[in-house]
């Protein structure tokens, strides 16, 4: 089963209807961007994870791209409205920061994808992710964990990680929290970098996965160099040169992800150590 986390849009802004007595009621998925065909699947009701974020548990549907419409009431006195900002590639929760459909968009390949295309694109997404993981020195998929029986520093803004007595050496995000009978809380966290929520990571991975597919040898439309012209006799072929870094259409450089790197620090002002085996440790590397 996949999940979809939705931020309702109303009057051109992200909006949380719960404080005003509204609610998010239903998500309908369609197979076409016009949302004018039959409903492929529906999910209801939504669970409010935290301020402005509502989660739908989606039924099992064939892999692919779907367009959705979310029904909600902005407040207790307003009529229901429909948010049509939803476009989701399913399944979710597979450890990929980008989808095969996003790679197809980059290549100009029409949807839906064949199983072979999907498998190829997923492989190249994982390869691109491996390069990013090595560069950042950290995984792109966070770890879910639950802290039980803890007391917040203050009673409001409990979706803020700073409200909890949590001491971690990595990024942490509050997903949900539940009061317990003794007055404490059980808190669900995501710990670590969530690459799927970082636009720079998604753009890098999708772009490089698509380019890897394009450069694969073979007769498919996705592979090979970009041909700009062919002579009438077929004796000469001209190729488009790839855009250079900074130009529109150029592949993003990996140093565009610098702000997300996890550095390994080694103090310079340490007392000298005797060489091994006389020293107590072979290395003195700190993380």
Describe this structure in words.
The protein has helices at 100-107, 115-136, 199-214, and strands at 2-6, 9-10, 13-14, 21-30, 39-43, 47-50, 53-58, 64-75, 81-90, 143-150, 172-179, 185-191, 227-230, 237-239. With 287 residues, the protein is an alpha+beta fold. Strand 6 and strand 7 (53-58) form a beta hairpin. Helix 1 crosses helix 2, helix 1 (100-107) packs across helix 3 and helix 2 packs across helix 3 (199-214). It starts with a strand and ends in a 48-residue tail after the last strand.
Please specify the SSE layout and strand pairing.
Blueprint (H helix, E strand, L loop, with lengths): L1 E5 L2 E2 L2 E2 L6 E10 L8 E5 L3 E4 L2 E6 L5 E12 L5 E10 L9 H8 L7 H22 L6 E8 L21 E8 L5 E7 L7 H16 L12 E4 L6 E3 L48
Antiparallel strand pairs: 1-7, 2-3, 4-5, 4-8, 6-7, 8-9, 10-12, 11-12, 13-14
Helix pairs in contact: 1-2, 1-3, 2-3
Helix-strand string: EEEEEEEEEHHEEEHEE
- The overall pLDDT average reads 86
Beta-strand residue fraction = 25-35%
Q: How many individual helices?
A: 3
Main β-sheet description:
4 strands, antiparallel
Structural class: alpha+beta
Alpha carbon gyration radius: 24 Å
Regions with little confidence, pLDDT below 50 for 5+ residues: 282-287
Q: What fraction, in percent, of the residue positions are helical?
A: 10-25%
End-to-end C-alpha gap: 37 Å
| Overall outline | globular
Strand segment count: 14
How are the strands of the biggest sheet laid out side by side?
5-4-8-9
């Amino acid at each position: 089963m996949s999940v979809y986390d939705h931020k309702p849009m109303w009057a051109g802004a992200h909006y949380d209807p719960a404080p005003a007595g509204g609610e998010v009621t239903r998500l309908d998925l369609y197979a076409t961007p016009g949302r004018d065909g039959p409903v492929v699947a529906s999910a209801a009701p939504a669970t409010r994870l935290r301020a402005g974020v509502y989660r739908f548990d989606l039924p099992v549907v064939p892999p692919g791209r779907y367009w959705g419409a979310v029904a909600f009431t902005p407040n207790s006195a307003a009529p229901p409205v429909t948010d049509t900002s939803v476009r989701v590639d399913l399944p979710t929760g597979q450890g990929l920061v980008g989808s095969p459909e996003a790679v197809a968009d980059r290549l100009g390949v029409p949807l839906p994808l064949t199983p072979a295309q999907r498998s190829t694109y997923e492989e190249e997404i994982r390869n691109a992710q491996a390069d990013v993981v090595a560069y950042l020195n950290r995984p792109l998929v966070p770890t879910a964990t639950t802290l039980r029986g803890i007391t917040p520093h203050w009673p409001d803004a409990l979706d803020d990680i700073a409200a909890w007595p949590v001491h971690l050496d990595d990024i942490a995000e509050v997903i949900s929290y539940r009061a317990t009978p003794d007055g404490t809380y059980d808190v669900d966290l995501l710990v670590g970098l969530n690459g799927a929520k970082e636009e720079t990571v998604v753009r890098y991975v999708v772009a490089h996965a698509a380019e890897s597919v394009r450069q694969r040898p073979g007769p498919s439309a996705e592979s090979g160099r970009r041909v700009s012209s062919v002579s009438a006799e077929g004796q000469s072929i001209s190729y488009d040169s790839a855009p250079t870094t900074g130009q529109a259409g150029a592949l993003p450089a990996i140093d565009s992800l610098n702000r997300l790197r996890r550095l390994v620090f080694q103090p310079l002002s340490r007392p000298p150590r005797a060489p091994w085996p006389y020293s107590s440790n072979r290395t003195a590397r700190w993380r």
